[in-house]
Design brief:
By secondary structure, this protein is mainly α. The protein has one domain: Mitochondrial carrier fold, CATH 1.50.40.10. 70% of the residues lie in helices and 0% in strands. The protein contains 14 helices and no strands. It is a multi-pass membrane protein. GO terms for molecular function: L-ornithine transmembrane transporter activity. Pfam families: Mito_carr. It is found in: Mitochondrion inner membrane.
Length: 348
């Protein structure tokens, strides 16, 4: 049975727009709602992220598993140790989620209007007939006016949501790369005494990297970030599929659908993207060398880091630290999507 609350939302949003201008005026909502998504994600997810990064980047024998990593971190550094490097994502995730979710909304609209010729791009809308490959081919052959003239609403299919995810992931990578680079270097500082750490904080880290390596050093790992975030195809494609299924098969409220679909689709994303994230973290924590004095650089290219992981630990090496990441994925992203969709509904 469909959710009455979500159905009401769908009816309000699914009416075919008379022009594209009013639709484009609502694009701001995604950027505003993304700020609240970033705050929710950081609050719930950062301790899990710290453990994940430490397991991904340290030598094999340092921690026996996630639980020991947590206990050793708290024992040696206190609870604050779990929130090391939280300042960059506190600012960064607010900004990144604003750009990512805002651009996602724009790309959904552009794909719906110009490629798939759909009147609605709301996730979970429609009857769920097909993934959208046929619709894409038909849309590329026909003109926008040929389908938009239909009185019945048409919907952006899962393929369209997935493609929008790729575009949004690539867009936000130019913001995410330096933020995640600084965060990763701060997270692998194990000394409890600040005087023994190479970087006193995010500003100091950014300043030292820029001084010795310039903008290129700050954006170290950009290509790896784009590869990782292109996997947003699976996140937003599955979010549409799960949202639609829950709307049709359950009687739960729209916020509950956002929560469950957000958490489950995030886990789908991490199942498909985790190896690329691990390679990205290896690159971002690799010494930059030169005047920075942090050691000898090991991975000049993405391929070198990927091969090194396999040589060290085989295929299992690509999944090191996966458990805390997988445990984090559901609550952090479920809360983030709940916040995002809630704000989207409340904005005019």
């Amino acid at each position: 049975m469909a959710s009455p609350a979500l159905d009401a939302q769908m009816k309000a949003e699914d009416a075919p727009p008379t022009t594209t201008k009013p639709s484009s005026r609502r694009d701001y909502k995604g950027f505003v709602a993304g700020v609240f998504s970033g705050i929710a994600k950081l609050t719930v997810g950062h301790p899990f992220d710290t453990i994940k990064v430490r397991l991904q980047t340290t030598e094999k024998g340092r921690f026996s598993g996630p639980l020991q990593c947590v206990t050793q971190t708290v024992k040696n550094e206190g609870i604050r140790g779990l929130y090391k490097g939280a300042t960059p994502p506190l600012v960064g995730w607010m900004f990144m989620d604003s750009i990512m979710l805002g651009s996602l909304t724009v790309y959904r609209r552009l794909l719906a209007e110009n490629i798939f010729h759909a009147s609605s791009w709301t996730p979970g809308a429609g009857d769920g007939a097909g993934l959208g490959f046929t619709t894409l081919l038909d849309g590329l052959k026909s003109s926008p006016t040929s389908s938009s003239s239909s009185s019945s609403p048409t919907y952006l299919p899962p393929l369209g949501h997935g493609i929008a995810g790729i575009f949004a992931g690539t867009t936000v990578s130019f913001i995410a790369a330096p933020v995640e680079h600084v965060k990763a270097r701060l997270q692998i500082q194990y000394a409890a005494n600040k005087s023994e750490r190479m970087y006193s904080g995010p500003i100091d880290c950014l300043r030292k990297i820029y001084t010795h390596h310039g903008v290129r050093g700050v954006y170290h790992g950009l290509c790896a970030t784009i590869i990782f975030r292109s996997m947003f195809f699976f996140w937003w494609g599955s979010y549409d599929v799960i949202s639609r299924w829950m709307r049709q098969k359950t009687n739960i409220s729209a916020p509950a659908i956002n929560f469950w679909a957000g958490g489950l689709s995030a886990q789908m994303f991490w199942l498909t993207s985790y190896p690329s994230d691990l390679v990205k973290q290896r690159i971002m924590t690799d010494p930059l060398g030169g005047g920075l004095g942090d050691g000898e650089r090991r991975f000049p290219r993405w391929k070198n880091a990927a091969v090194a992981v396999y040589r060290e630990s085989g295929w299992r090496g690509y999944w090191r630290g996966f458990l805390p990441c997988f445990l984090r994925a559901f609550p952090a992203n479920a809360m983030a999507l709940l916040a995002f969709e809630g704000v989207m509904r409340s904005l005019p």
